[in-house]
Write a structure and sequence with these properties.
Layout (H helix, E strand, L loop, with lengths): L1 H22 L4 H17 L3 H8 L1 H4 L2 H19 L3 H28 L6
Helix pairs in contact: 2-5, 5-6
Length: about 120
């Protein structure tokens, strides 16, 4: 049942995002920022963590989950370091994921020889 919940929740998030891209004039970069901020906001008001507990990777893998990770890191750092944790917590919480994305995309660029579009 965990796989089914992950599938339909993740699919619903992706479908809503695709509708947002198709039906509005928002650019993809702005939609991505909107999703990260929405994930952080939903985490701040306590809605996103129960969704992540229910759907697992279906809720934690999309960009909403990235916002959730940033929020949890900031909250933990603020509790430990006070005001300065506001600036360091998000970076600490997502450093592994961002570093992995950079390293693996760099390796992929060696393998696949990317080219500019015409």
């Amino acid at each position: 049942m965990d796989y089914i919940n992950a599938f339909w929740v993740g699919g619903l998030i992706c479908a809503i995002t695709q509708i947002l891209l198709d039906k509005t004039k928002l650019l993809p970069g702005r939609v991505m920022v909107l999703l990260v901020c929405l994930g952080a906001l939903l985490s701040a008001i306590g809605i996103y963590q129960p969704l992540t507990d229910f759907a697992g990777a279906g809720a934690s893998v999309p960009l909403l989950g990235f916002g959730n990770t940033l929020w949890k890191g900031m909250k933990k750092a603020i509790d430990q370091d006070g005001f300065m944790g506001l600036f360091s917590g998000g970076f600490t919480a997502c450093a592994v994921g961002v570093s992995g994305a950079l390293v693996f995309s760099y390796i992929a660029s060696w393998i696949f020889k990317p080219k500019m579009k015409d």
